């Protein structure tokens, strides 16, 4: 920094105010000093004055050159990753499979029942709606398995009263015993461990669940449990899951005929599982599974929706909707209409 000093006569101090810009010294430096002092001197603005707005010059990027990003703007925006949706769906399925594998390893319930009970429950809520305060609708569950479904249905639908049932074979049927971890042999049905398992997750845990009863759905309604026959024509819903393809077709016919007797007019039969549509499998994996089922038992296999609908119509049940469900399954919703239900 260049410092230039000059002497001010003493007699000028008392009477004359000093100029804002001191006078430069005489000589050849006068012009230079005047410019220098004007640049260096910045008058202090008054206390009550407002700052003047300043203009910021925006730099224009040269062709082929991008301006650096604004850090504040980047931090204020959520992080967005460009990930293919197919990859995300695959990852979500993998996470779900791991979760249900862990649950199956530590649960008495079958893995497929653990996976489908949530989606089925949502459809039941949609179909049943909210009952009146004074009503306690009855729900008959056919093939309750180990009580996996009623375990979550009962607390989620506290106004409903659930009647769980299960098929208890009278003699050993070979490898069929392993299907769904259900069915035992020997001894009276009342002492069967599987019914005790259902009660553990049903009637013993929830006040709106009655004790489980043995039911062979392939028999006439007159052979169904006495607790069910006593409520003939008063059930609001009959529901069954994953049965039609792992049982003889007479069981599907019995379910439709029995539901026609059990339901009141306007009641619903809900059948969940894999089906063929117009004689066609929905996926190649379903076709392969159908072949494996028929290899184990020729009377098993995927049923066509038209076949089930025909049996339901014979029991005064009308198909109102075919719901598409996860894992290539369907939920068939039938409603009881006025008419006479034929005996099985």
Helix and strand arrangement:
Elements: H1 30-40, H2 71-76, H3 85-106, H4 111-128, E1 138-142, H5 148-156, E2 161-166, H6 193-201, E3 213-214, H7 226-229, E4 235-241, H8 249-262, E5 263-273, E6 275-276, H9 284-296, E7 303-304, H10 305-314, E8 317-325, E9 329-336
Helix pairs in contact: 4-5, 8-10
Give a description of the structure.
The chain has helices at about 30-40, 70-75, 85-105, 110-130, 150-155, 195-200, 225-230, 250-260, 285-295, 305-315, and strands spanning about 140, 160-165, 215, 235-240, 265-275, 275, 305, 315-325, 330-335. Residues about 170-190 have low confidence and may be disordered. About 35% of the residues lie in helices and about 15% in strands. The protein is built from 10 helices and 9 strands. It has a 7-stranded mixed β-sheet with strand order 3-2-1-4-5-9-8, sandwiched between helices. With about 350 residues, the protein is α/β, with parallel strands linked by helices.
- How many helices? The count is 10
Q: What percent of residues are in strands?
A: 15-25%
Oligomer: single chain
Shape: globular
Tell me the distance between the termini: 113 Å
Low-confidence sequence ranges: 172-189
CATH topology of the domain at 105-336: Rossmann fold
Helix content, binned percent: 25-40%
CATH superfamily of the domain at 105-336: Vaccinia Virus protein VP39
CATH class category label of the domain at 105-336: Alpha Beta
**Cross-sheet strand order for the largest sheet:** 3-2-1-4-5-9-8
| Average pLDDT number | 79
Level-2 CATH architecture of the domain at 105-336:
3-Layer(aba) Sandwich
Kindly name the structural category: alpha/beta
The major β-sheet equals:
7 strands, mixed
Number of strands: 9
The Cα radius of gyration reads: 41 Å
The SSE order reads HHHHEHEHEHEHEEHEHEE
